[in-house]
Amino acid sequence: MIISRLTKALLRYRSSWHIRSNVCRHLQTDVDWKNGEFVNSTTNVLLIGSPGSGKTTVARLLGAMMNRPVVDIDDDHLEPYWNMTVADKLSKVGGDRFLEEEGKALLKFDGKGQIVSLTGSNPMHADAMTHIAKSGTVFFLDCSNKEIINRLNMMKVNRIVGQGDGASMEEILKYRRQFYEKHYDVRVVCEEGETPESIANKIKTKYNSFVYDKGYVSTRGSTTKPRVPFFHTVLKGLAEDGGLYTMAGDLPRFTNGQLDRLVHCDYRERALGILEQLIHPFDLSPRLLQNFVNDAYHCESFASEDIFPVRHLTGNQYILELFHGPTGSFKDGALQLMPMFFTAAMEINRTSDTHFYCSYLIVVATSGDTGGAVLDGFSRHAGGSGVGVVVMYPSRGISQLQQHQMTTMAGDNLRVIGVDSDFDFCQTTVKQIFQDEEFADALQRDHSCKLSAANSLNWGRLLPQIVYHISGYLDLVKMRVISLGDEIDVCIPTGNFGNILAAYYAKEMGVPVRRLICASNSNNVLTDFLNTGNYDLTSRTLLRTASPAIDILKSSNLERLLYHAHDNDGAAVSQLYADLDRQGRFSVSDEVLRRIQSSFVAGSCDEQTCQQTVLKTYKDTGYLLDPHTAVAKSVADRLGDRSCPVLISGTAHYAKFADSVLPFIGQMTSSEDASVSGLIRKSLELKPRPAMHRDLEDMTTKPVVHRETSSADYESVKRHIRNFIEHLKS
User: Fold this and answer.
1) Which of 171, 195, 213 is the last residue of a domain?
2) pLDDT digits (tens, 9 = 90+) for 592-644
3) What are phi and psi of 39, to 5 degrees?
4) CA–CA separation, 384 and 382 (whole Å)
5) Which of 31, 293, 377, 626 has the fewest C-beta atoms lying within 10 Å of its C-beta?
6) What are the strands, taking DSSP E only, across 326-394?
7) CATH number at residue 533
8) What's the chain's Rg over C-alpha atoms?
9) 3-state secondary structure of 496
10) What angle separates helix 400-407 from helix 676-686, to the nearest 10 degrees?
11) What residues contact residue 227 under an 8 Å CB cut-off, 6+ apart?
């Protein structure tokens, strides 16, 4: 069996993973569950960070705030243990031996229920740090090197332990950071000029936020105790009551000072800094998260070093290019990472019950782009993990290149099925399958197989999309288009509402977004809803357009927005969707609509306008838009204004839709050019911006390996799934 890079990473980091699990068990052993909240008094709060980060002062303040004793490792443990000052010990044994002696002393620490300020060098001794980390929660006071050096200069400190001759303070601080990054549970970003009181308050707030964390809840109101953890949402996809999982508590918020620390970071550093605020450290340790992020976002998979670069288009409009991943779609942004979440969740289940083995089948409905991204992500990052993938697409509802891309993806654990219907049927069928208890029981009984989802219904799929919206704003700051704190508009072509919902979450987390502009094509049910509060499918028929990925009438992720707009009232949301199922429509109150419209505006674009937008943009700028991005550009032209930059989500590379785009710009195709390879060849001849996507060009030579089709019938689809599982188990 081929072992994926992820599986190797999990094996490599299993020991540190178990450390985190032990910390989690320790926390849960020493706390009481009262009214759904953890009450804790015996685990330590441990502070690590560079010399000059303020650990000692912050610890004293924190001790007073939390009514806990304070231990300074230098003064209260090392010096009594050695019976001499730290300076004398350093002078006696020398710098090379000091770290080892310090580590041996730290291994004897056995305090409980304390605020512990560690030395700047303690994390450099792995065994000692592992020992003390088991006693509580490790907070990393993450100050910039510039801030640290300024503080050390004020304190007249020009040398620290481990700094050899010829090494600058900047170099030794950079060297030490790797050790802090290995051992923390919670990062506390220290802003420029921030006071110790403010940092202590941050730690207390963060401590309370994860100790009292309630996990995740269904948008339709069902709750379970104890808390539903992150990995449960990833494995399940849908909640048991048919709702979608979302955070039970508030989203974390970034200040401008915290965002400023991310401006000059690369994409991987930004992703880690954002995601570790969204994922409980005892659900997924920052160390393992960092490895996942590094494996997901690199130049082997993404054609741009910036991963998702921002390009100027025209006037005050900018394109967030989300299509540089392996399948040429914004879906890669999430689906290069989410399979690692999924496989880690499976591994945790297996290690918690070594006698129980269960494989998973990912069932996905796609309007074109999700399918290819799921197939690529799970084959690249979860191969050999026991995960099968079934992708259903509307056989006459996606582009020629989208279909070729999916049907040429080889793998024994992959199956692609063309369904003789539209996307809404495919999506409704997937939801029906997840709610079919008899079918699920039969799969688990007969094949030890469980079902899950990988589209934006899955919370683990949605989280990485928040990252690139925040990163897009930071790039505008880095490019000096705006100053930090200035507002922008964000315009996103929208069908299933997942991408724009992620942008909404970015706004809720403190990114200065003035308006979220929802751009629909001729299937404009979302535009009508956001403008009127009425979601009505009774007189609508799904129209086929040149932008098939947003040819959707039943917009799944709207449910999460409705949940938030109803003050997290799951019963109200459940009633809305019951009305939709029975009557084909629902309406929200004026107050709920007002809340939604405080963040969202909406417009739509018909086919003729889409075509004209592609042509005009190409003539004026040399930039060739795919039809979905053209829908957004058209709506941004009408709803944007000169007072505010507009960041348009470029959701796909134009070459995926060359069969539509080339005729739009007057490049009529002959019968020879109409083939997949011919369309790519014709596109290459034009040499537009952006450059040809390397993986799309390579894809044209691959043979089709999936030819399976199904009628638009629920039982027929289930038979195909059953047959595939039997094939996997054979």
Assistant:
1) 213
2) 999 999 999 999 999 999 999 999 999 999 999 999 999 999 999 999 998 99
3) -120, 120
4) 6
5) 31
6) 359-365, 387-394
7) 3.40.50.1100
8) 27
9) coil
10) 120
11) 36, 213, 214, 215, 216, 248
Alpha helices in 279-352 (DSSP H): 286-296, 332-335, 338-352
Nearest 5°: phi and psi at 346? -60, -40
φ and ψ of 67, to 5 deg:
55, 50
Distance from first CA to last CA of the chain, Å, rounded?
Answer: 14
Q: How far apart are the C-alpha atoms of 643 and 78, rounded to whole Å?
A: 59
d(CA 217, CA 176): 39
Residues 469 and 131: their CA atoms lie apart, in Å, by: 39
Residue 308 in any domain: the answer is no
- Do the beta carbons of residue 131 and residue 109 sit within 8 Å? yes
Domain end (from 181, 213, 245): 213
Is 286 a member of any domain? no
pLDDT tens digits for range 72-96 = 999 999 999 999 999 899 899 987 7
What predicted TM-score, i.e. pTM, was given to this entire model?
A: 0.91
**Rounded to an integer, what distance in angstroms lies between the CA atom of residue 466 and that of residue 267?**
13
In sequence order, what DSSP letters do the residues of 452-487 get, joined into one string? E--STTSHHHHHHHHHHHHHHHHHHHHTTSS-TT--
Residue 688, in any domain of the structure = no
Look up the domain containing 564 and give its range: 462-672
Position 484 in a domain: yes
